[in-house]
Design goal:
The chain is of the alpha/beta class. Helices cover about 40% and strands about 15% of the residues. The longest helix is centred in the last third of the chain and has 23 residues, at about 190-215. The relative contact order is 0.14.
Length: about 300
């Protein structure tokens, strides 16, 4: 029987803050396949996430297929907007959600992972942020646009840059994108469509550079719309889910587990010759050129 086997592998998942999003689902899938899981949680969410975890609020969704619970070897604070401590503005350092938390920049987290675990085999980039995502591109400020690019695209580049030296040969890096990188999705603004396009372009370049320098593969999953906490901030996610259900070839919305299964495959030796690829997990929506529920087709 052909199976995904990640026993003896260690995965770092950047962008787990609750039990609803793709990051959580990918953590479960990788653990089901045998990998050890460490995660990075957005610094302002750290106490909420670890508190809920300790209080058992996630126990139902932590259940694995064998009845055991998903365990994290360690949870790190992470704000991927900052590469080094020197990059953190004074107002952020003094913010109550940051003040008592240290070591949350990319370089510090990667150094801590090296000290605590030595190496990693899998890196999952499951984070994005666009402070003006609800604004049309024509109304987006320079600051909002650059923040979207920084948090959602460059953070992947920086994390591969810093994690690469401690990733084992044959390792895999994976990020998550959305079809707005290629097509107009009204309402997905604030520079986020540009950030996703940059992320996909960077993945192709990193597939070459990271293979030569670190011996690792870099891919990206283009996931269909999903009602995570982060996606709900966009404001129209329910409409996009319904649109996919009505117009995709499979005629249904996606499940987080389907994205997670694809991530497990791309992270495994079964995908050893796959790099620089965008894998669509969207019920086939990317293949459609027209909407089936348009009045033009009635």
């Amino acid at each position: 029987m052909l199976a995904i086997d990640l026993r003896g592998k260690r995965a770092f998942i950047a962008g787990v803050g609750d039990d609803k999003g793709f990051g959580w689902a990918i953590a479960k899938a990788l653990r089901e396949a045998g990998a050890e899981i460490i995660v990075g949680c957005w610094t302002p969410m750290l106490k909420i996430f670890t508190g809920a975890l300790a209080a058992g609020k996630f126990d139902e969704s932590r259940k694995l297929k064998d009845g055991t619970l998903l365990e994290f070897a360690k949870v790190y604070p992470l704000d991927a907007s900052f590469d080094t401590p020197q990059d953190v503005p004074e107002e952020i350092r003094e913010n109550k959600r940051y003040k008592d938390v240290g070591g949350y920049t990319i370089s510090e987290v990667c150094q801590s992972i090296k000290q605590d675990f030595g190496t990693v085999d899998i890196f999952i980039h499951s984070l994005a942020n666009g402070p003006e995502v609800q604004k049309p591109l024509l109304e987006t400020s320079r600051s909002g646009y650059l923040q979207a690019i920084s948090s959602s695209a460059y953070s992947y580049v920086s994390l591969v840059q810093h994690l690469g030296p401690i990733m084992n040969q044959g390792g895999a890096a994976l990020s998550l994108t959305y079809i707005a990188s290629e097509c107009v999705i009204p309402g997905y603004g604030g520079g986020m469509s540009s950030a996703k396009a940059a992320l996909e372009s960077d993945t192709r370049v990193l597939a070459f550079e990271a293979a030569k320098r670190f011996g690792i593969r870099c891919n990206v999953i283009s996931a269909g719309p999903f009602g995570s906490r982060a996606a709900k901030a966009i404001g129209f996610i329910d409409k996009m889910i319904e649109y996919t259900a009505r117009n995709s070839p499979l005629g249904r919305q996606i499940e987080a587990e389907e994205v997670a299964n694809a991530a497990a495959f791309l992270s495994s030796s079964l995908a050893s010759a796959i790099t620089g690829t965008v894998l669509y997990v969207d019920s086939g929506m990317h293949a459609m050129g027209v909407s089936l529920d348009s009045p033009a087709f009635t």
